[in-house]
Amino acid sequence: MPAMTRRASLGVFAAGLAAPALAQAPAFPNRPIRIFVPFAAG
Fold it and tell me: Could you tell me the pTM of the whole model?
């Protein structure tokens, strides 16, 4: 494999590994969650 092809394939591979780190979703939930239960406690 020529050196330039190897270098290009390594660059694509490294970009593929870095992509999930850059595309992370924001923290969820960012406020308290309220759960309504239709039954009395106990």
Answer: 0.44
User: Between 42 and 35, where is the model more confident?
Assistant: 35
For 2-36, the DSSP string reads -HHHHHHHHHHHHHHHHHHHHTPPPPS-SS-----
Residue 36 exposed, middle or buried by CB count within 10 Å (0-12, 13-18, 19+): exposed
Distance CA 8, CA 10 (A): 5
- Rounded Cα distance between 6 and 14, Å, is 12
